[in-house]
Structure formats: C-alpha cells, structure tokens
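Quick one:
INPUT:
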C-alpha cells in the first residue's frame, strides 16, 4: 500500500520529512548491478555474486545473478536480454547510461502537456506549462513496496516512481502532484496540479508479436480528486490480456484507498495495438467514470507493458500501471 498521502500532507505544510518512507536514498536494486549468491574467490581475488565481477590471475569464475562470464582473467559483463545478437538493456542500465529509455506523461490536471526526463542518477525532471518541476535523489525514500517517493519541499510536490527491477525490469510508472498548502490540513490534501506517467525501454514495433496471446500482471497507482481538488491516493493490482492476432489489449486495475478499503475497479476497455503501443477511449470504472487509456510494450519482445488512464465522472482519476508477461 502506497503511503503517499501523509507525505503529501507533510510537504504541503513544509514539514521536514515524510514519516512513512524511511528517509534518504534507500536506492532499491539497480538492474545490472545486483549482488546475489555467495562470495566466490578465484585467482586470489574475491568476487561477489551478481552482475558485477572482478577477477584476477588466470582462473575462471562463474557468478550468480545475470549473465556474467569470466574467462582467463578477462571479465565480460552482460545485462538485460540478448535477442538476435542485440542486447536490450534493463531500465536501470538505460538510466545509468543516459540513453535507451523514454517516458510518456499525461497532460497535467492544471492543463498543458508534460514531459519527463530521468537523469543518470535517477532524478526526475518534469517540464510543464506551469513551470519545471525537479526531484533529486537526495530527497528520495524507499517505500518498501516497490515504489520510490520523491519530495520537493520548495515546490510542495511529491512523485511516486516504481522501482526498476522490483519487479519490472524494463518498465516504470507513477504519478506526481503539487499541493496547495493553504487549503491542506486535518488529513486532507488539496491539489494545485497533478499527473501520471509511464516509460522504460520500449519494444521495437517489429518485435511486437503478431500472433498468439499473452497475459500480464502487475500494479497500478492513481490520484482521485473532486471539483474541490481534494485528493485521495489509490493503488492496487493490475492485470491485462493481449490478443496479438486481433491487435487488441484490455486490462483491469483493482484499487484501494489509503485506509486499505476497496475503492473500485478501472477497466481500460478494448485498446487497439498499433506498432509498439496501444490506446483507446472506452475506459470505465465500477463507480461510473469514463475516459481513455494508452500504453506501450517494453522489453525485447513485449515482455512488459506500461500505461496510463484518465477518467472523469464522480471524480477525476489519473493513474498509471505496469505489468509483466506471465
């Protein structure tokens, strides 16, 4: 369960820290640098299992984790997935390298288009018509539930970002919000702007299957708010099915509110697959909302999906999702 709402309140009141997150940059586990398995000693040099290997002498080392091969004292480290002679980096690797990942952001609640760039250090930089919004890793905390929380106390803003590699290797998603401190307090949060996003290492349109079916499972997160802009944070599971022969995909998010009480479901409706993405205007909720949804495939061969939905009706709901093939 996301613990973002207390963080939003704290930010709006310009408090020193968010009590729910654990503080600081807990970092998660970046793809391609995972340590795993037991330490192994070869050629007089200690090597920690994972995808980072140091060797010495002329020995041979095999390490746990993701595809590391050491031969004759020379280390070759590989990450991601190799398909047809081309290696697809994980999202963590792409971020660290400063290329290979791209993000899509919904239009902001306050109007206007939004762009997102993720820095090599994991910092977030949003461009929007109401001014740039940046989140550094010095104010990032690990929720312990697969999400990072970023704070910008100067702007009274917060962002959630699903942790690369936990469990999605190629995809990330989340939302951001700027609150109105003058109208926030007593357990309520009033927004002044908000939106959601998704992205990662995209699947080439030529690598998306054209036959067969696939099921996906993962998570979704959203903000719901009324005409008074008082917000609730929602999160829960997300499942989807793709029919590649029919060029369609549909998904359902089952969401709960901050207290853990069931909020309802969001159905994407039937989305049309075109190239490496999918979209449609038939999204609905069990509470009577209507709207649209869109997304993309990520990974070397449509291994994962990420997307966003935007609904209006009893309230406005802006959310995003990410899921892996099962």
């Amino acid at each position: 369960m996301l613990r973002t709402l207390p963080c939003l309140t704290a930010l709006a009141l310009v408090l020193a820290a968010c009590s729910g997150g654990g503080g600081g940059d807990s970092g998660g586990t970046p793809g391609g640098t995972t340590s795993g398995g037991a330490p192994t000693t070869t050629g007089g040099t200690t090597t920690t299992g994972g995808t980072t290997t140091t060797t010495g002498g002329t020995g041979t080392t095999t390490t746990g984790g993701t595809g590391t091969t050491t031969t004759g004292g020379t280390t070759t480290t590989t990450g991601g997935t190799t398909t047809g002679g081309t290696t697809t980096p994980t999202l963590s690797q792409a971020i660290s390298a400063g290329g290979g990942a791209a993000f899509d952001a919904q239009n902001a609640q306050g109007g206007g288009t939004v762009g997102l760039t993720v820095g090599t250090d994991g910092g977030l930089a949003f461009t929007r018509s109401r001014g740039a919004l940046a989140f550094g890793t010095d104010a990032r905390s690990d929720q312990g539930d697969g999400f990072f929380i970023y704070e910008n106390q100067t702007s009274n803003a917060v962002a959630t970002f699903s942790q690369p590699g936990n469990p999605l290797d190629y995809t990330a998603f989340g939302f951001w919000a700027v609150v109105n401190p003058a109208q926030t307090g007593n357990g309520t949060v009033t927004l002044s702007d908000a939106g959601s996003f998704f992205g990662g290492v995209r699947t080439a349109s030529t690598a998306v299957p054209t036959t067969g079916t696939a099921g996906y499972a993962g998570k979704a997160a959203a903000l719901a708010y009324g005409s008074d802009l008082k917000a609730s944070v929602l999160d829960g599971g997300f499942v989807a099915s793709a029919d590649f022969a029919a060029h369609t995909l549909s998904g359902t998010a089952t969401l709960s509110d901050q207290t853990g009480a069931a909020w309802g479901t969001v159905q994407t409706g039937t989305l049309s697959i075109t190239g490496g993405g999918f979209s449609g205007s038939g999204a609905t909720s069990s509470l009577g909302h209507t709207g649209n949804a869109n997304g993309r495939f990520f990974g070397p061969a449509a291994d994962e999906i990420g997307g966003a939905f935007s609904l209006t009706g009893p309230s406005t709901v802006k959310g995003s999702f990410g899921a892996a093939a099962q």
